[in-house]
Structures are given as C-alpha cells and as structure tokens.
C-alpha cells in the first residue's frame, strides 16, 4: 500500500533517495557491505540513509573536523562516513550501548579501512561520557532519544567555538509537534530542541526530511562561543 503524505507517496521518496545515492555516491562497497553485514547480524535497519551519511561526511569536511564524537554507533554505518571525513590524522570516538552492535561495527570499520581512526566505547553513553574529554569539532547524536537533551548538554561541555552538534530523528513522523505527548522519545527530542533554542552558546535550526527512512528530520546547532 502506498501511504500518502503531503501529496507524495512513500515509494516516490525512496525512488528519489535511490537516484540521489546513485548519482552523488555511486558504487561504494565499504558502506554497502556494512549495511549487508548489519542485516546479516540482525541489527535493526535504522542506520542513516546513504545520502544522509554522505551529508554528514560533507558537513564534517566543510568545518574541517578532526575530532568527532558520535553517540549511538549501531553497526558503524554513519561512523564510516565520519571517519572518512576526518582523514588519516583525525579521530572518531563513538559510544554504543549494545556489545553485539559494537562488535559488528568494529568489523565494518576495519573492513572499510578506517578502524584505526575510531575508538568504540561500549556501555550506556551517560556512563561513558565522564571519561571522555574534549574538545570535539563535530557531534552526531543518534541514540536513545529520551536522553537527547542530556547528550546536547554533554556535547556542549566538550565543544569549542565553531563546533557543530547534529541530532538525528527529531521530527518523528510529526510527533515532535505534539505538546501533549507522553512518548519519552518525543519528550526528549523536544527538550533537546528547546535547549538548542534557548542556550546562549548555541545557534541552531532543524529540517524535516523524507526519503527511504520515512518522514523525520535533523537538528543542527552551532557552538558560538
């Protein structure tokens, strides 16, 4: 069944994503192999899309990021894009709660040739963060959504002026607009967006996205001082 959203069918969103990935990324066995390995290992198919992964990489390169902190590794798909962006002299620290996911991610990163650039910390992110010192140039937050505001706070404490904080999955099929929600993921996301809006050191925005991953979006915050 083709579900309609704003006059466009989901299949069209996927077709557009496929066209963009084919045209702008082309054949990339390192990242496609990672997705296949994730599927074979039983990981949930909640990675960023190829176009989103390339977008993260371009953003990291645009700001000259050399130190990246990722919260939520899953199978390392987005981590590969970020590790490529920082280059051989750069470093990515990524936090993953599930040991099985971390094991799959390590294999994917090594196979992609960027394993030496990445440190995977296994355990609850809020427990790992006190042992991680900044400053970092870019943060990608894509973990348990109820803690999004805590993760933005932690990123800010480890940032420098000009650093970029990115929070994934902030639209949640429109749920973020529901002020009466009791959904912990949406409450955590709203708290993060409101923190970005009100913090004196942050200047941010957010964009809705549609595509192979459905209807969602990303929030971005520049650390200004």
What does this 3D model show about the protein?
The chain has 225 residues and is an alpha/beta fold. It has a single domain (6-223), classed as Vaccinia Virus protein VP39 (Rossmann fold). 41% of the residues lie in helices and 25% in strands. It has eight helices and nine strands. The protein has helices at residues 10-24, 29-40, 50-62, 77-86, 99-111, 125-128, 148-157, 184-198, and strands at 4-5, 8-9, 67-71, 91-96, 118-122, 136-141, 159-168, 202-211, 214-223. The chain has a seven-stranded mixed sheet with strand order 5-4-3-6-7-9-8, with helices on both faces. Strands 1-2 form a two-stranded antiparallel sheet. Helix 2 (29-40) packs antiparallel against helix 5, helix 3 (50-62) packs parallel to helix 4 (77-86) and helix 7 (148-157) packs parallel to helix 8. The chain is globular. It starts with a strand and ends with a strand. 43% of the residues are buried.
* Total domains: 1
Q: End-to-end distance, in Å? A: 49 Å
Overall geometry comes to globular
Low-confidence stretches: 1-7
Count the beta strands.
9
Radius of gyration: 17 Å
Strand content: 15-25%
Main β sheet profile: 7 strands, mixed
Reported by name, the CATH topology is Rossmann fold
Whole-number mean pLDDT:
94
| DSSP helical segment count | 8
Structural class comes to alpha/beta
Question: How are helices and strands ordered from N to C?
Answer: EEHHHEHEHEHEHEHEE
Give the strand order of the largest sheet, numbering strands 1, 2, ... along the chain.
5-4-3-6-7-9-8
């Amino acid at each position: 069944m083709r579900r309609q959203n704003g006059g466009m069918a989901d299949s069209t969103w996927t077709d557009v994503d496929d066209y963009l990935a084919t045209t702008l990324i082309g054949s990339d066995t390192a990242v496609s192999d990672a997705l296949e390995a994730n599927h074979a290992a039983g990981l949930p198919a909640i990675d960023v899309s190829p176009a989103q992964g390339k977008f993260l990489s371009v953003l990291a390169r645009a700001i000259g990021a050399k130190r990246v902190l990722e919260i939520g590794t899953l199978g390392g798909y987005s981590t590969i894009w970020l590790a490529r962006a920082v280059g051989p002299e750069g470093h990515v620290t990524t936090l993953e709660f599930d040991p099985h996911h971390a094991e799959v991610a390590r294999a994917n990163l090594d196979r992609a040739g960027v394993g030496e650039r990445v440190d995977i910390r296994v355990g609850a992110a809020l427990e790992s963060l006190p042992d991680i010192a900044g400053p970092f140039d870019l943060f990608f937050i894509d973990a348990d959504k109820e803690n999004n505001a805590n993760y933005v706070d932690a990123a800010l404490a480890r940032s420098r002026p000009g650093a970029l904080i990115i929070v994934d999955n902030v639209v949640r099929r429109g749920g973020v607009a529901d002020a009466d929600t009791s959904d912990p993921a949406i409450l955590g996301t709203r708290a993060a967006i409101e923190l970005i809006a009100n913090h004196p050191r942050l200047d941010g925005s957010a964009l809705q996205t549609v595509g192979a991953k459905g209807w969602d979006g990303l929030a971005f915050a520049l650390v200004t001082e």
